[in-house]
Amino acid sequence: MKIAVIQGPNLNMLGIREKHIYGPMSLEQIHEQMKASAEQNGVELEFFQSNLEGEIVDRIQECLGTVDGILINPAAFSHTSIAIKDALSAVNLPTVEVHISNIYKREEFRQKSVTAGASTGVISGFGPFGYHMGLIALTQIVSEVKAIQNQQKPETPAQNS
Questions:
Q1: pLDDT in the model for residue 130
Q2: CA-CA to 91 of 20 to 30 Å: which in 120, 156, 158, 160?
Q3: Residue 104 among the catalytic residues
Q4: Nearest Cα residue to 99 out of 77, 69, 67
Q5: Strand pairing partners for 97?
Q6: Is 133 left (phi over 0), alpha (psi -120 to 50) or beta?
Q7: pLDDT tens digit string along 97-148?
Q8: Is 20 a residue of the active site?
Q9: Mean of the pLDDT values across residues 34-47?
Q10: Domain ranges of the chain
Q11: How many CB atoms lie within 10 A of CB 154?
């Protein structure tokens, strides 16, 4: 199983910016914890971070046919990006959206996630542990999707030699 982890703007500044909101962990530390958990469960992770909306859209589109699911923290683009929402809808992969802070306890403009409408589920407010929760949820969802797809495959008749 292969999962793309896509990180949005300013997440490269974790551990430096607004520690009272996002905590002291860096993005690299979060990714290291995710890798350790993924390896234990036979999951391959591909990490990507960009501060540019178009690059995130491109990366989502590249996921089509190459990964089984997407774990995304669109960060500030969550609240504004129809382009990212449309890209997620277009690839139609199981997607879990993660937010380190509880967006529903923050400013009003942060309480609406445009991109959530194209996500299978959203995890918000659990700090960096939300990534672990998202990874568990996504691996379960992908496993269920694969099981259903395998059940729907027509049986091939036995070959005679």
A1: 95
A2: 156
A3: no
A4: 77
A5: 72, 122
A6: alpha
A7: 999 988 877 767 666 889 999 999 999 999 999 999 999 999 999 999 888 8
A8: no
A9: 95
A10: 2-152
A11: 5
22 or 46, higher pLDDT? 46
Amino acid identity of 147? A
Domain 2-152: CATH architecture, name and number where available = 3-Layer(aba) Sandwich (3.40)
Written as one string, the DSSP assignment of 22-74 is: H-S--HHHHHHHHHHHHHHTT-EEEEEE-S-HHHHHHHHHHTTTT-SEEEEE-
- Rounded Cα–Cα distance for residues 41 and 14 (Å): 26
Segment 2-23 mean pLDDT = 91
Residue with tokens 């809808």: 89
The response to whether 58 counts as a known ligand-binding position is: no
Question: Does the annotation place 86 within a ligand binding site?
Answer: yes
Higher pLDDT, 147 or 153: 147
Structure tokens at 157: 């008749």
